[in-house]
Amino acid sequence: MSLVNFEPAARRASNICDTDSHVSSSTSVRFYPHDVLSLPQIRLNRLLTIDTDLLEQQDIDLSPDLAATYGPTEEAAQKVKHYYRFWILPQLWIGINFDRLTLLALFDRNREILENVLAVILAILVAFLGSILLIQGFFRDIWVFQFCLVIASCQYSLLKSVQPDSSSPRHGHNRIIAYSRPVYFCICCGLIWLLDYGSRNLTATKFKLYGITFTNPLVFISARDLVIVFTLCFPIVFFIGLLPQVNTFVMYLCEQLDIHIFGGNATTSLLAALYSFICSIVAVALLYGLCYGALKDSWDGQHIPVLFSIFCGLLVAVSYHLSRQSSDPSVLFSLVQSKIFPKTEEKNPEDPLSEVKDPLPEKLRNSVSERLQSDLVVCIVIGVLYFAIHVSTVFTVLQPALKYVLYTLVGFVGFVTHYVLPQVRKQLPWHCFSHPLLKTLEYNQYEVRILIYTALLDAATMMWFEKLHVWLLFVEKNIIYPLIVLNELSSSAETIASPKKLNTELGALMITVAGLKLLRSSFSSPTYQYVTVIFTVLFFKFDYEAFSETMLLDLFFMSILFNKLWELLYKLQFVYTYIAPWQITWGSAFHAFAQPFAVPHSAMLFIQAAVSAFFSTPLNPFLGSAIFITSYVRPVKFWERDYNTKRVDHSNTRLASQLDRNPGSDDNNLNSIFYEHLTRSLQHSLCGDLLLGRWGNYSTGDCFILASDYLNALVHLIEIGNGLVTFQLRGLEFRGTYCQQREVEAITEGVEEDEGFCCCEPGHIPHMLSFNAAFSQRWLAWEVIVTKYILEGYSITDNSAASMLQVFDLRKVLTTYYVKGIIYYVTTSSKLEEWLANETMQEGLRLCADRNYVDVDPTFNPNIDEDYDHRLAGISRESFCVIYLNWIEYCSSRRAKPVDVDKDSSLVTLCYGLCVLGRRALGTASHHMSSNLESFLYGLHALFKGDFRISSIRDEWIFADMELLRKVVVPGIRMSIKLHQDHFTSPDEYDDPTVLYEAIVSHEKNLVIAHEGDPAWRSAVLANSPSLLALRHVMDDGTNEYKIIMLNRRYLSFRVIKVNKECVRGLWAGQQQELVFLRNRNPERGSIQNAKQALRNMINSSCDQPIGYPIFVSPLTTSYSDSHEQLKDILGGPISLGNIRNFIVSTWHRLRKGCGAGCNSGGNIEDSDTGGGTSCTGNNATTANNPHSNVTQGSIGNPGQGSGTGLHPPVTSYPPTLGTSHSSHSVQSGLVRQSPARASVASQSSYCYSSRHSSLRMSTTGFVPCRRSSTSQISLRNLPSSIQSRLSMVNQMEPSGQSGLACVQHGLPSSSSSSQSIPACKHHTLVGFLATEGGQSSATDAQPGNTLSPANNSHSRKAEVIYRVQIVDPSQILEGINLSKRKELQWPDEGIRLKAGRNSWKDWSPQEGMEGHVIHRWVPCSRDPGTRSHIDKAVLLVQIDDKYVTVIETGVLELGAEV
Fold first, then answer.
1. For 268-310, how does the pLDDT look when each residue is reduced to its tens digit (9 = 90+)?
2. pTM above 0.85, yes or no
3. 1038: left (phi > 0), else alpha (psi -120 to 50), else beta?
4. Which of 554, 706, 1184, 1207 matches a 20 to 30 Å C-alpha distance to 221?
5. Buried-state track 77-93, b at ≥16 Cβ within 10 A, e below 16
6. SS3 496
């Protein structure tokens, strides 16, 4: 019987035959006393579910027919009665007289028909299975009554479940928990019947392991009796909460079987657990056939069947593939769906969220795609390789020496990799030393000095011991462990499959399962594998060899046992640390009472810990005291609900609430975005950092705390795979409670200065901890792993807006910038001409066009409006033009198509109208009280978030195009806040229109200014925008203040603290039980008081809401090692078919270029990679000896004309290199890029730079230098014979030791060569010869009395050709390369290095379109360190005015030679 079958109804005497079909199907109607004798209405209807909102309706009105009959006394005596229709048959119902609360107190309310069907089926199963056990006589005497009581409780729970249940993970009604008792009852009854049947029908086959005969009837009978006792204890079991709800149990069971039997990983959901478990079963089924066939073949001492070698190769390949796949199939399904059924999303331009796209899903799909492509290649290679190794009989010929060599190797490598290296890299190695023995470069830095201006800079410097750790780990899990498993498979397979052991069928299954488990676990998490292997070898080879069941099975079972032993060790460490009497913290009187009573039960506590370790259940302190109880089983993920915090912003709140109540304005909601960004940073780098050993040892379920100045987050590692980690981040409050602050101090304060020894302070040995410090560190449930973990994040700066706008002058500055911002955005808009031609706007602004017009709105204030006209008591057009006309003219001049900016022009009228409108909107939002600071800030914040209220009829012209508000006025008010901030650093700088204009352009490009409730703010943060700014209004805990929030992306330093995972699980379970089941609502309960030894408050604060109070809980996020650039540098990227093809093609090109370079007079490969050889770098002796001397520039022929001075970098000499060629090209070949403004080859500089070549193009005016491709060249065969002879003469006459010349003589190649190239050092000389040959001689050649030798003449001409470039991609600029500690580049001069970066530029920054000349060039793979690039692209050093800019060559456009 359930509420789903009830329908509210009522009858009236006057309508006793009423057949209206909808009389009460949707309302609760009246019931009158004369309806008692009414017959049930017979009509057709369907089963409906009662709506509780309708049931709550109360209707006490009397019938209109009887209203005059009853007197006041009779009216009071009448009671309103409700009844509900319970449909027995489709046309027959009876009335049930219950009100809503009584009915809900008696029965659970079912929402769906399926729930009723499931409840009926379970009730029948409970009755059926219970009756079978009773009939077969499993229960006698009083136990029959007890068993019937259990049956009754299971059936009644289907009608009315216990709410809240002790194992319920949530507050309120839990629909799933109602089915727990009957499901567990059916499982237990089924087990009882099966075990009893098995004890009576055993086969003759004996299955015996480690001396235990599992086919003994006594074993089955004992197990059956144990299940019977457990079933009879159901009331106590469910009261204590030892069994979880059904879905949790299924997920836990699949996860545990997959981890311990098949070597799988932890799972993230019920679907993932089932998917992973099924994948493991399918893999075993596929491999079982090969193994069974191989075992059926003939075996001997020196021969192993080839089929078994194939099985071994496939086993390794399948294990490798399964270890690299995440248990969550959602990303894989999404990838398949995107490939098979690509969706074309139609964007709605009016939707504000149409441009906001989360890049994470696409990134995850790409990562999974890369891994699948890599596995396609690697699995084939691994399978073939290990098949070849196994079939070579190496595992039979080299026995027994091989196995001991492998055992020794795994012991040594594992000990060094997982014990020695992590210990010496810890903050307190072995809790004895006061600092790490192996330090990173950032360890001694007070603040991380790496700035994020380019993606080429690494987050943290790679150390040699990190590379060593990666390679040792790679060798251990990819070579050593597979060899050990294959060795044991070869030596144990025949024994296991023999009739004396397990026979062929069962033996093949055990071999397959054991091999799969050992290999998968070694690939996924090899941290503690070496301990298991060494202990197993020592135990079964030297101590108890007689008990060994072959080393393969020994390793299989010992790996399961060791997993439980590690868990038991963590539980005991947590218990003893938590209840240690010298550091116990009593949070309440109950704690003081429970402490002494827990001491006599220590032995029971140990047994309880062992049982909980066996079942992997948390051991939680009861109410936070020293009494521990076992909770119900949980998966590694722990939390059964997929709870994630949801940020409140304008995308998920109503417009009315945004305008009035400003939802989400508390600090916690606004600060949660920083934890979300931290999650994205960890998604990118966490897996790689773990493999580099930066977080120490780690395993499934480990918990870490990341602590910085204001960020404190708990990171829960859930799934550990081969090259992947799934984690969840829980961010705590920025301004935590008192208890949280005490624990934060405990994990951030150092103990190096402690000098205590018991009660005295004798000091400590240098670089060692004192006795007290070493003792206290050993009695903590946490330890500091590293103190300088570098991670990308945002530094947060908040300034009080009230202090910045306290005085009227500062508000006037803000208003002035507000007006200038509006003018800037309207003049730079692409729709300006459309607005100026809009007739509706012209009509609305007709009054403003009058030169004598003045707006006398009372909202204008002479204290904050600079253009306020005191004579006219308002803002006149004339006063506006006096202040802002100059700025309007300048902004208009910067347009590509300037417009008329006269005083009476339409542009000035539009700017005047907009600026008046904007200030009137600010006054309206400030309630016309701009002189009051609080009102001014309120109005400023309203405009900042886009709340513009047009209240004046004079401003209604703006409705002609609302883009004016969205694209002009709103950006104007936002930009004014940033300009107002800049005003404090340089008050008079923005008086210059040029500086102000460039500042706005720069801020537009590099800075995101938005309201924190705007979805664009979240999108910008997650997109890693370099800088952001917002005006925050905080209304929390009685505070009402305005802050200007500035975010700058940079690398932050975190302390990484590893917490005992059993401590975290126990405290989480205790909080859930206390708040959900025991309903302790005390906000100052003892279980959340600070306990520094266990970080009790921080851990309990990180629970899911409403149990805890984290400000952010991330979804389960998977990090892949392929996204970590530093790890790629060590091991290389993913090996896919596409990458292999690209590698072969690039290698072939490099070989061709290298061969071409070697065949052309000693050219080298770096020349061919960069398009030619290295050009000469030469200058006169004076310049070479005095690098910082001023050089007079101008015409070489007439130095006295057009001279100018400037600072130039010193001349650097480089080794000679020659140009290379691929095939014969004419002078006209190559890519021609010529600037019209640079038609001649004239130079104004005094030196030439390294490795810059130009093709030559024949035109009617002569030869001009052009950029050429890497395959182009200058062929001597196509040159005139006179030029060849003159060039040969230069080669013969040029002195090798000439000062300032970096080139040496090179003979001219023979003319019979099919591919002849000009040496790089002769390119510029050739330009002069070509010019002379073409009739164009320089002024120097024309002057009489010129006595320059040919060599000196060529030298001078080389110095003349200076190439200019234009920046086309500012993202290619390396703004911080000059301050990099890695010293990637060798600079031509230290002074230039210090000036070639943002540290010297200050507020200046290179922009797209800027031009300059190249003074130095670094190329990849150069033999000379001074010209060697640190990346696979050429890097240029460009001088722009007096600034130096380092830029990648692909980010510039070559403009040719300077004019």
1. 999 999 999 999 999 999 999 999 999 888 777 677 889 999 9
2. no
3. left
4. 554
5. eeeeebbbbbbeeeeeb
6. helix
